[in-house]
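Readers of this paper often ask what the protein records in our data store actually look like. Such a record has a labelled line for the sequence and another for the backbone structure tokens. Nothing more is needed to write down the fold, since each code stands for a local backbone conformation. The record that follows is passed on verbatim for readers who wish to inspect the format.
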Amino acid sequence: MESACRELDLYLLLPFVAWLLTIALAPLLAPHFWEKNWRKAVLSLPFALPILAYYSWQGCQAELLHTGEEYFSFITLLASLFVVSGGIFLQGDLEGRPLVNTAFLLIGGVLANLIGTTGASMVLIRPFLRINSKRKRNSHIPIFFIFAVSNIGGCLTPLGDPPLFLGYLEGVPFTWTLRLFPLWATALALILALFYLYDSHRYRQELQEGLARAGAQGGLALRGSFNFILLVGIMAAVFFNLPTPWRELVMLAMAGISYAFTPRELRKENDFTFHPIIEVAVLFAGIFITMTPALAILEARGGELGITRPWQFFWLTGGLSSFLDNAPTYLTYLSLAQGVSRDLGLQAEVVGVPAIYLQAISAGAVFMGANTYIGNGPNFMVKSISEAAGYKMPSFFGYMAYSGLILLPLFALITVLFFSGAAPL
């Protein structure tokens, strides 16, 4: 029975691929239908049910239960951070100038390592959108936010992104990820430099066209600051690795306290609604179920890929993290790296692998979650919040055009600088 649950036929990938294409094409082909979250939930059933039926028929309920537990933990963390951060309101106004915007992204990239990419995204995205709302050429604003804050920023601590936390649970020392600082600093600096140049260009176009400038109105004031204490509570539940379901109950308790005690008018000023987190919950429910065979096939047949070089681990981990959940993808390639290290007799520097392997896997999982809307949980929430704020977000493939033009050359440079010449062989 173990073999039937692990050695699966490739046709079981079809529901996963079909669901991804539906997420990409439905907003373009049927935008009115796609607006309602309950319709998305109904639409996901034809893709999820065949996988559920197959695994049940094969007696692989344990795999489904494991997937369900991962989804429960995943969505509980996102939802609790979403609710608590939605009670934090940065009052006042700044002018959405290129230097101010770049500073916002830098702060987000640092903060992501303390409260996670999801926490930093939910705390900063609304004020970031607000200070740029008066600008006419602002469609790039949330896209670069996803790049810098929702993904690349969070690779310095196990609290930053779920793959690194799983690595910590597997025995990676808590401070080991600080060794990723050169990668983090290089990638973030390049993204911020590109953003500053492009944002300056768009800003000059607005000035040349005589568009009104949005000057600052008074100082900035932080309201709902007690929610930061609740954010610390959520991250403590993650840091101390409370067992399921106690960890999730602590997170839900923090969210419940925030929702009960944050003034309703503050959430209204923050344009807080549950639509973005419901959309993420619905879409990722289908993704988690349909990707179960994909991860099993990768784990069973990954050794056939002939991966021995750090750059291969970087790109393959990152490529799959763009479309699969990056946490189990990280673990799968970590297991593969451990097997390769044993077979080749390589020096095991941390958790049974050379350090360069673990650096490549970690950076690939965290950085390349920015390649698509579904690469990391915060991406879709930022998209939904931005659309609710009146920003025109690109389609699924339109976003990939941005990431392809901006991120892939950056990742190629990262490869040359850190992984192409580095090999344990």
Observations:
- The CA atoms of residues 137 and 202 lie 6 Å apart.
